[in-house]
C-alpha cells in the first residue's frame, strides 16, 4: 500500500466514524432541534471525509472534482434543510423543545 | 453599498464602463466567476472527456447567460483572497462543529443544554444575510431556526450565555468582510 | 482497497438500519423526516463508495442526483406535512 492509500483509508475510516456519530446523535438527542444539529453537522463532516478519501484514490482530477461537487450540493442543501425543518417545527404544530440541561 | 468600495472597483476596470451603465464594473468579475464555475461543473460531470465540449461550450454559455438574466450581479464587491480566506474559516469551523456535536452525541453523559437565543443582524438583506445564515448553521453548536425580519432565532446545543452572541458577532464580521462591507470588528472576548 | 470500500458501504447501510429505530419511535412526523434526510446523506455516501469500483462510474451520477433532489423533498415536506394547512393533530400524536 502506498502512503496515499494509507491517507485515503484514514479519511474513509474517519468518515465512517462520523456517520456513526451522526446516527447515534439522531437516536439519542432529546428533541427535533438537537437532532438537526446531528444531521447537519456530523453527517456532513462524515460524508466530506468519505469524499476526500475517495477523491485521493480516484486517480483523475475530473472524478475528484465530481465527488467534491456531490459534497458541495449536499452541504448547501442540508444548510437549507435544517433551517426549513426547524422553522416548520417552530411555527407549525411541531415538536416542543426539550427544556432539560445536562452539564458535563 | 459602501460608496468608497464602489469607487475602488470602478477604478480597477475603468475602460469597461463604456459597455453600458447597467453593466457595472463588478459585473465582470461575477461573469468570469460564473463561467468558471459552470465550466468546471460541466468538465467534472463529463469525467473530463474532451469530446464533451462540443456540447459543453454552448451549454456553459447558455447557462451563464440565463443565470445572469435571472439573478443579475449585485453591487457587492468581493475579492478572491477574501473568498479563499472565508472558505478556510468555514471549513475549519464546520470540522470543529462536527467534532463538537459528535463528541456530545457519543459521550455517555451527553452534555447538552439546548437553548433558543435571538440575534439582531446588522448585515444588509440578500446575499450577505443568506451566507451568514448558511454558515451559522454549520458552525459549532449553533443552528438557524427562524427569521423574523432582521432578527434571527438561533438554536444552540449548549447554553453559553454571552459567548453565543459574541460568536455570532464574529461570524457576522467575517461575512461582512467577505462582501467588502464595513462592519466594525467585534471587541475581543472577555472570558 | 476494494474490501475496505465495500465494508464501509455495508457499515453505512447498518447505520441506515439503526436509524429505523427513530422512525418507529418518532414521536413527531418531523423526527421521522429527519431520519429520511439522514438516509439521503448516508445513501449518497454508499453510492460514491460503490462507484469507486471499476465500471460502476454511473453510480456517482446517481449520487449527484440524490444530492440535488434532497432539497425538493424538504420543500415538499415543509409545505404539505407540517405547514399551516396540515391536518389538525397529524403531527403531535405520540405513537403507542
Automatic annotation (TrEMBL), chain A:
Signal peptide: none annotated. GO terms for molecular function: sodium:proton antiporter activity. The keyword Flavoprotein does not apply. It comes from the Bacteria. Pfam families: PhaG_MnhG_YufB (PF03334). Keywords: Membrane, Transmembrane, Transmembrane helix. The keyword Ribonucleoprotein does not apply. PANTHER family: ANTIPORTER SUBUNIT MNHG2-RELATED (PTHR34703:SF1). This is Monovalent cation/H(+) antiporter subunit G. It comes from Myxococcus llanfairpwllgwyngyllgogerychwyrndrobwllllantysiliogogogochensis.
Automatic annotation (TrEMBL), chain C:
It is a multi-pass membrane protein. GO terms for cellular component: plasma membrane. Keywords: Cell membrane, Membrane, Transmembrane, Transmembrane helix, Transport. The chain crosses the membrane at residues 33-50, 62-82. GO terms for molecular function: sodium:proton antiporter activity. Pfam families: MrpF_PhaF. It is found in: Cell membrane. The keyword S-adenosyl-L-methionine does not apply. InterPro entries: MrpF/PhaF-like. Belongs to the CPA3 antiporters (TC 2.A.63) subunit F family. This is pH regulation protein F. The lineage of its organism: Bacteria, Pseudomonadati, Myxococcota, Myxococcia, Myxococcales.
Amino acid at each position: 500500500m502506498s502512503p496515499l492509500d494509507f491517507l485515503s483509508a484514514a479519511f474513509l475510516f474517519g468518515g465512517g466514524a462520523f456517520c456513526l456519530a451522526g446516527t447515534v446523535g439522531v437516536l439519542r438527542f432529546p428533541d427535533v432541534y438537537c437532532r438537526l444539529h446531528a444531521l447537519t453537522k456530523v453527517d456532513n463532516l462524515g460524508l466530506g471525509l468519505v469524499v476526500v478519501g475517495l477523491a485521493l484514490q480516484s486517480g483523475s482530477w475530473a472524478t475528484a472534482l465530481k465527488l467534491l461537487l456531490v459534497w458541495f450540493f449536499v452541504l448547501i442543501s442540508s444548510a437549507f434543510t435544517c433551517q426549513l425543518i426547524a422553522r416548520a417545527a417552530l411555527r407549525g404544530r411541531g415538536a416542543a423543545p426539550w427544556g432539560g440541561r445536562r452539564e458535563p | 453599498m459602501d460608496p468608497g468600495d464602489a469607487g475602488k472597483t470602478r477604478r480597477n476596470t475603468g475602460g469597461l464602463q463604456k459597455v453600458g451603465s447597467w453593466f457595472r464594473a463588478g459585473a465582470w468579475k461575477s461573469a468570469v466567476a460564473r463561467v468558471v464555475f459552470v465550466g468546471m461543473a460541466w468538465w467534472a460531470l463529463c469525467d473530463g472527456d474532451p469530446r464533451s465540449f462540443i456540447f459543453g461550450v454552448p451549454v456553459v454559455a447558455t447557462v451563464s447567460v440565463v443565470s445572469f438574466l435571472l439573478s443579475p450581479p449585485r453591487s457587492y464587491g468581493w475579492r478572491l483572497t477574501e473568498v479563499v480566506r472565508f472558505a478556510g474559516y468555514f471549513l475549519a469551523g464546520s470540522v470543529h462543529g462536527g467534532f463538537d456535536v459528535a463528541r456530545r452525541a457519543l459521550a455517555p453523559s451527553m452534555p447538552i443544554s439546548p437553548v433558543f437565543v435571538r440575534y439582531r443582524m446588522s448585515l444588509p438583506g440578500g446575499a450577505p444575510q443568506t451566507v451568514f445564515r448558511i454558515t451559522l448553521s454549520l458552525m459549532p453548536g449553533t443552528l438557524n431556526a427562524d427569521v423574523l425580519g432582521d432578527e434571527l432565532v438561533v438554536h444552540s446545543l449548549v447554553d453559553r450565555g454571552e459567548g453565543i452572541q459574541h460568536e455570532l458577532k464574529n461570524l457576522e464580521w467575517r461575512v461582512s468582510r467577505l462582501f467588502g462591507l464595513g462592519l466594525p470588528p467585534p471587541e475581543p472576548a472577555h472570558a | 482497497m476494494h474490501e475496505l470500500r465495500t465494508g464501509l458501504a455495508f457499515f453505512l447501510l447498518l447505520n441506515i438500519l439503526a436509524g429505523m429505530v427513530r422512525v418507529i419511535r418518532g414521536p413527531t412526523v418531523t423526527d421521522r423526516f429527519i431520519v429520511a434526510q439522514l438516509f439521503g446523506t448516508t445513501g449518497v455516501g454508499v453510492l460514491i463508495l460503490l462507484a469507486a469500483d471499476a465500471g460502476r462510474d454511473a453510480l456517482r451520477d446517481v449520487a449527484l442526483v440524490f444530492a440535488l433532489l434532497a432539497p425538493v423533498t424538504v420543500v415538499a415536506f415543509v409545505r404539505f406535512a407540517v405547514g399551516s394547512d396540515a391536518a389538525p393533530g397529524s403531527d403531535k400524536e405520540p405513537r403507542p
